[in-house]
Amino acid sequence: MPFVNIGGVTLHHRYRPAKGDAHPIVFINSLGTDSRIWDAVWSALDGEMPMLVYDKRGHGLSDIGSGIRSIDDHVDDLLGLIDHFGFGTVVVCGLSVGGLIAQGLYARRPETIEALILCDTAHKIGTTESWNTRIATVEGKGIEAVVEGVLEMWFTPAFHSARSAELAGCRNMLTRQALAGYIGTCAAVRDADFADVARRIAVPTLCIVGDQDGSTPPELVRSLAELIPDARFEIIRGAGHIPCVEQPEALATLIRDFVASLPNGSKPIDKTPATQRAIGPG
User: Fold this and answer.
1) In terms of DSSP H, where are the helices of the chain?
2) Is the pTM of this model over 0.85?
3) How far from 233 is each of 71, 210, 217, CA to CA, in Å?
4) Of 51, 54, 94, 224, which cross-links 99 as Cys (Cβ 3.0–4.6 Å)?
5) Rounded distance, CA 111 to CA 191, Å?
6) 29 near 121, Cβ under 8 Å?
7) pLDDT tens digits, 143-171
């Protein structure tokens, strides 16, 4: 298992090279998950582009280091990884808080980013009150006290009824999350607002959301796409907050087509503001 020390924080990561000159893509996991949520997307895209996934600070097998005070702590780690691998520019695909980290990276070092894929995320997620309530509940009763509500937002009713083994595995992943990493990242999300950053994004950007996302609903993700100049907006049918688990083939298709549209790809960049195309079952 590959590990690297970035500024005193040991990060677990996985890298898959690819032939050709495709842009490397970095995947960032959501709150309470680890890099394994991207496995099916990785399998679908294997060999097509260089891919890097990692467990963000305080999640999975990565350290929490000195703690998590803001999204900037996660940005520090991501920048360290990019520099460690010697990437010139990257495509960044961030899910939920991963999308906030991607926006924070753009604010810090925009020249590093070739393009953004902002998946089930927004410029501002939740309210101070909602996050403080969750933090207080988890501090007092543990993650188990919020797990059922979180899973309802993560996955559709169809997933809950038909994919019980996967649901149980995701429940285990969430409840076994390091408490300090979870709480620290909750606070980081609570305090993040990238509305001004989103208006300044000047790279190709794709905003994606599951049609039944209970955490960052389609209209919220659409509002992010409308802030970003020339952003595309796509909806995945039959998916909640984590389409890389629920509808990985549909998500992989969107990623593949978007990356192909970049300057060294075979398709022109779609400049239609906030375009929408529903993809997936149905």
Assistant:
1) 39-45, 71-85, 97-108, 128-141, 147-154, 157-162, 164-175, 179-191, 195-200, 218-227, 243-246, 248-260
2) yes
3) 24, 11, 13
4) 94
5) 25
6) no
7) 999 999 999 999 999 999 999 999 999 99
pLDDT per position as a tens digit, 170-195: 999 999 999 999 999 999 999 999 99
Q: What is the dihedral of CA 79, 207, 220, 190, to 10 degrees?
A: -10
3-state secondary structure of 90: strand
CA distances from 71 to 11, 189, 193, 200 (A): 16, 7, 10, 18
Cα separation of 124 and 195, whole Å? 7
Helices 147-154 & 164-175 angle (0-180, nearest 10): 130
2, 115, 209, 256 from 197: Cα distances, Å: 33, 15, 20, 26
Determine contact, residues 32/143, Cβ cutoff 8 Å: yes
